[in-house]
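User: Structure tokens for this complex, please. No commentary.
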Amino acid sequence: MIKQSIIENVLEAALATGGDFSEIFIEDKYVNEYFLQDGKIERSIAGRDFGIGIRIFSGLQSIYTYTNDFSEEGLLAAAKRAALAIKGDESGIIHPLRKEIITPIHQILRMPNTVEHTSKTAIMRQADAIARNYDPRISQVGIRYLDEQQNVLIANSEGKFVEDTRVYSRLSMQATATEGTEVQTGFYGPGAHAGFEFIEQLDLNHYAGEAARIAVTMLHADECPSGKFPVIIDNEFGGVIFHEACGHGLEATAVAKNNSVFANRIGERVAPEIVTYIDDGTLQNEWGSLNIDDEGEKTRKNVLIENGILKGYLIDKFNARRMNAQPTGSSRRQSYRFNPTSRMTNTYIAPGTSTPADIIASTEYGIYAKYMGGGQVSPSTGDYNFAVMEAYIVKDGKIEQPVRGATLIGNGAKTLQLVDRVGNNLAHGAGMCGSLSGSLPVNVGQPMIRVSEITVGGTKGE
Amino acid sequence: MNIAQYQDKLLQQATQAGLTEAEVYYEHKTSFQCTLYEGELDSYETSKDGGLSLRGVYNGKMGYAYTEKVDDDSISFLIDYVKANAEILDEHEDISIFEGSQEYAQHSFYNEELEAVSIPEKIELLRAIEEKIRAYDPRIVTLDYCILQSYSTERTLANSKNLALSHKENGLVLYLSTVVKEGDELKSGSYIKTTRDFHALDVDAIAKNVAEEALANLGEQSIPSSKYPIILRQDAAASLLSTFMTIFSADKAQKNQSLLKGKVGQQVAAETLTLLNVPYHPEALSGSNFDGEGVATKQQAIIANGTLQTLLHNRKTAKKDDCETTGHAQRESYKDSLSIAPQNFYIAPGQNTQDTLIASLSEGVLITHLSGLHSGTNSISGDFSVAARGFHIQDGKIASPVKQMTIAGNFFTLLKDIEAISSDLYFLPNGHGSPSLVVKELAVTVE
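Assistant:
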């Protein structure tokens, strides 16, 4: 993308004021996005994102600069501008670049840019028809198609020189149901680190049908009761609760500065024995997967909690310095505009032995969260909140009426201790995670689990 | 590459390639950001970046493409994709590229003095604030966010109808959050300060605000879950309003995605409520003299004394509803197609101080912070159930901070249930603002 000699000059200029590590991240990304609403393709955008991020370390100081001026003068000026932040006298050392060839673990069969636009829009129309035909009360359907091809080149003063291509495909479906003055929505958004083959093979009847079914179901849902209840959270996207409640607290961003309840607790019991929590960027073609992270490190399977014992954190190169630890292939950034840091990839609770039917049958009274919405956490305190998109009351071991407006709040470390059932039906769901280094594709996953008590905020009162 | 020349060349080639009308939008930003951690410079970031988009009519339809690589190769990339994307669309564009308004306001969104402030001066300021906060009280453990951002942005809009508009803005934002501890209780408090006037920043006042915001949360108590009269503090009220901003979009209404559809001229809020849009406000950082299509922006009431005056329109939605555009076409960036959004959008302040509002309640809850707004709100139904932080009010006084709560209700009902409004207007960095509001009641669940 940019000549190797220029890259070497930039890495060197960045260290002229005494930095001890420099890195360049070059990104050239092609994006296609279409949006269908009112039964019509009403928006189509194609674009090319192109830019360069330069990073310098000087001990525990990190300097970042980015630009889309790709001329040698422009890049050298950017490197020098960044180097001004360091006040040393000796230049840092540059190792000769050694080109590393990676063997992609995520095969792409049909590059999106080779697929006719009409093949993409045909699938959007099918999804629209499925959702609309589900029920006459479906009043609006929005289908969003996205494909991205991100080419990256990462080189650093330690001699790393590696290139990769990441391809993402996603189809998001939102259905709105209306009856009288009641309006409710349902959503499903499967995505993968894969080409158009992923979109072609999607079971549209399932995904578009579920989006419509959720919207219609919630039309007649009761208001959710408030209080402290056992909560059963179903598999797949249900894993968002542990993404918020403990995943963020295991990122080095929070741990390195002791801003996490999990800091300095390796080897301690942080969860019941039935809980094993894993982040794995190597899962084939999953939405959060990568061949290499955004520092050029190979992704890997990181066991974070094993049988309830805290085993590890997600660590990037910079925080590794403060923590005196090794990076874990977890450094990510939304684009060249972001200084990379430790982030999740595909994070999930490993399957247990309970069957979903048993978990429900053994619950006297509680809430069953079938589909979760999004959530948020403050890593320093561990306080989290998230919304339930489709919830039901469970009474005497049976799923009863649907309820809406349920929000779960609590403290991540405490909630983790209260997991009392882990099911055997592990599945993963695609989402976008926003944090310091931008918005990133991540998978959250889990089998059905039960937490013995969570505070449920609803509109109905106790 | 000279951008004006590049724009001309692109427009010319686009016309030659068969686009009957075309528009080029260009954005360029210079920014600086630094973070301090325990007295040391932890991160330091500079940037110069931007991009450019081409929007054009091909075979009667409006195609769209952008690039961040401004070179000769990108000209054909943009034109080819505009054509290809136009062909995918189902709708013929009945709105042409805009030829320009008669007159534009001349508000300035750029402060030369701010531009002259050096990076070391900015770092010094942040350092001074950080030191003051850390020394403020022994219960202060650390700052989990101590960030200064400054930026300067230029935008130009040029089209084949000879319209050429430009906009320049700058600003500075401080994001501060501190963690406090007493016994086993760990709390945090955050504060955002936006300004264009660097020299008016008061280090002591800012430090006090951040520290007090966090310290006040110590000593939390549980209160029974129930419906309570609520005071939404200015910043919490602004963030809730901002989340539901899309209900005012005519595009959403036309697509049955807003319950305000068909409500213009009707009472949609309490009489005490007036909601304004202004292109410029001295307290806000955002704003513009023209909208995303090049239409002159203007001051207007969206809700006046509870009655909905208009929805927010661009030229396309205005044509559909047979009315004039209100100048609310929005270009979030060159990467996005046109959408609808206000410029500075705020609830008009009332006469009361926040203390008078508190004194008026025999029992209630003062909400100072909301989180989970992206997931716990439904802008179509208006339902919300979000995590909240705040204080219990008893006998007109603040009694104690309350454990983590959720507040739940419906935004359309809330608008009608506003009973009093304070005078202390606050703007979020995005230009959405509010004073503090007294709301009749909301369901409060306490952890």
